Amino acid sequence: MKKLLKSILPVLIIILAEITVAIFLFIDPIGFTTWVVRILGIAMLCASLFYIVRFIILKIKKEDTSVVPLIISVIVLAAGIICTFFAPQLLNVLTKATALVFGIAMIISGIIKINMYIDTKREGFAVSVISLLSSIFSLLFGIVLIILSFAVPETVANAYLYVAAVGLLLEAAFDIVALVFALRLRKKIG
After folding, report:
1. Which of 63, 65, 175, 183 is the most exposed place for a label (fewest CB within 10 A)?
2. Average pLDDT over residues 154-164
C-alpha cells in the first residue's frame, strides 16, 4: 500500500493543486492573481537579498567573484519590489502575465505527465490511454492560454483567469479518470 501511495503521490499533488488554483480563480481572480504575484515578489526579494549578501561576504573575504550575479540580483530585487508592493496597480499586465504563467505551468505539467506515462509504460506496467490524453490536453490548453495572453486585448484580461480555471478543472478531471484507470489496471495485473 505504501508503494502504491508513493507511486501515485505526485499525481495526487498535481490534482489537488489544479483544483485548488481553479477554485481560487473562480472565487476571486483578481485577488488571487495579486496574491500569487506578491508571493512571487517576496520570493524574488528573498533570493536576491541572499545573493547580494553572499556577494558582499565573498568580497569581504577577498575571494574572486563575478559581478554578474550581483547585477542579476539587483534586477531581480527591483522586480521583487514591484511585484510585492505594486501588484494591484499593474493588474492588467499582471493578469495577462499570470495567464501566460498558468499556460507555461500547464505545458510543464503535460510534459511531466507524458514522461510519467512513458516511464510507466517502459517499466512494463499497463497504462491507460486516458493518461496520455490528459497529458495532451494539458499541453494544448497551455498553448491556448499562451496564445490568448498575447492575442486578446487587456480589457478582457480577467477572462484569461476564468479560462485558466476551467482548464485546470478539466485537467484535474482528466487526471482523476486517468488515475482511476491506472489503479484498476494495476489491480488487475496484481
Report:
1. 63
2. 68
